[in-house]
Automatic annotation (TrEMBL):
Designated name of the protein: histidine kinase
CDD domains with a match to the protein in the record: HisKA
Domain (Histidine kinase) ranges: 223-419
InterPro entries, sorted: HAMP_dom, HATPase_C_sf, HATPase_dom, His_kinase_dom, HisK_dim/P_dom, HisK_dim/P_sf, TCS_sensor_his_kinase
């Protein structure tokens, strides 16, 4: 039994770690932005105070020297520091400009009363910056903290995932161990009254319904086969005895052959139902079965289908040719394949031969209708000229799957070809 892949646990752990990483990243960016905003607010407040002082002094005596030595008043934009002048001319609305050699400028526009011209109060604050010197250290602290939070989230997510999915995976293990022969009556007894318990109780109800259905099917199959075998055997035997009577007309002999063949097909259908009703694939181990005796028996049984048809049957199967399968099931598969080949061949040939370890059944018939339904034929889906009930190919496919047989039906020039063999080891 293969263990399930714990994708749900992994998803929960990834969700926790992803959320922790997102939170750490967002709050780290917020922290950096907050530091820069606070620093700029300090500089802007100092500029605002100095601007009020300059405007008050200008009304009395003109611009004066700022109290802060890092500040300076410029009356003409052309006199601004060279490393910020070009940027200022392109974007005069900005209040913060980077300079060269680590310099950094904050600018406040002074608007005195008319008709005086405006001026610009510029502060070179590189010596007063607080965030820039510690930025790398802060980023490193944030990265380490974020990694620690992600690791904690992974551990916490793993713990919560295991705790929250423990009962679910216990139910998965129990469900994976179910088989057609073993359906436990009470899966929900070990689960609490939560979502998993509700699911377990629903599985209990489904298991009970399946058990009842299987029991009814087995009872019906057993009873039907018991009731049908005896009258079918009587019909087949009586038809065979009548065929040996003298004085039968050709028409009467044909009818008796049809009655005998129909009884044979019904007997085969009963055996097929019993084979398909088996739920345990290991009921009988597959052993090598000789093909020649089975094919000879099938050819004799279905020979009436070829009466009055110009069809030649050639069997080139050696006495040592075998396939691994349960003998009764293999006979059913061969009966369906050979019967179909006989029924659909109006003239030409039906050839049975070995191609390596596989049996090849080739008949000179049109394969178009069969290939439309192959490789997954549906029950009761049959060709326009078929006299059957459309179950043959579906039954053959199911029996092959059950017995580990491979079957390929394809067209070759002028022929329909069925290749029956055993699955290679590991490819069943």
């Amino acid at each position: 039994m293969s263990h399930p892949v714990h994708r749900l646990r992994r998803r929960l752990m990834l969700a926790f770690s992803g959320f922790a990483l997102l939170v750490a990243t967002v709050f780290g960016l917020y922290a950096l932005a907050f530091m820069y905003v606070v620093e700029d607010s300090v500089f802007n407040a100092a500029l605002q105070r100095e601007a009020q002082r300059q405007l008050a002094a200008h009304a009395a005596q003109g611009w004066v020297t700022p109290l802060d030595p890092s500040m300076r008043v410029y009356r003409d934009p052309a006199d601004l520091p060279a490393d910020m002048r070009a940027t200022f001319q392109r974007e005069p609305w900005r209040s913060e400009f980077p300079g060269s050699d680590g310099r950094h400028y904050h600018v406040h526009r002074l608007l005195p009363a008319a008709p005086a011209s405006p001026a610009w109060l510029v502060a070179e604050v590189s010596g007063q910056l607080v965030v820039r010197p510690i930025r790398d250290h802060v980023v490193m602290v944030l990265l380490v903290s974020g990694a620690a939070m992600v690791l904690l989230a992974v551990l916490l997510g793993g713990w919560m995932a295991r705790r929250s999915t423990r009962s679910l995976y216990r139910l998965v293990d129990q469900v994976e161990g179910l088989s057609a022969r073993y359906l436990p009556p009470d899966l929900s007894k070990d689960f609490e009254n939560d979502e998993i318990g509700v699911l377990a109780r629903a599985l209990d109800r489904l298991s009970a319904r399946i058990t009842d259905f299987v029991e009814r099917e087995h009872a019906f199959t057993r009873d039907a086969s018991h009731e049908l075998r005896t009258p079918l055997a009587v019909i087949s035997s009586a038809a065979g005895q009548l065929l040996g009577e003298d004085g039968l007309s050709t028409r009467g002999r044909q009818h008796l052959q049809h009655i005998r063949l129909s009884a044979l097909q019904l007997q085969q259908a009963v055996v097929t139902l019993l084979a398909l009703a088996r739920e345990d694939d290991q009921a009988q181990a597959a052993v090598p079965c000789r093909l020649a005796p089975l094919l000879e028996r099938v050819i004799v049984d279905y020979a009436p289908l070829l009466e009055e048809r110009p069809v030649q049957v050639r069997m080139e199967v050696g006495e040592d040719a075998t396939l691994r399968a349960e003998e009764s099931a293999l006979q059913l598969v061969l009966a369906n394949l050979v019967g179909n080949a006989f029924a659909h061949t109006r003239d030409g040939h039906v050839q049975l031969c070995m191609r390596g370890p596989a049996l090849v059944i080739r008949n000179s018939a049109d394969a178009s209708e069969i290939l439309q339904r192959w490789p997954r034929p549906r029950p009761f889906d049959k060709g326009a000229d078929s006299q059957g009930d459309g179950l043959g190919l579906s039954i053959v496919r199911r029996l092959c799957d059950q017995q580990g047989l491979s079957l390929d039906i394809h067209a070759e020039p002028g022929s329909t070809v069925a290749v029956l063999g055993n699955h290679a080891p590991g490819n069943a």
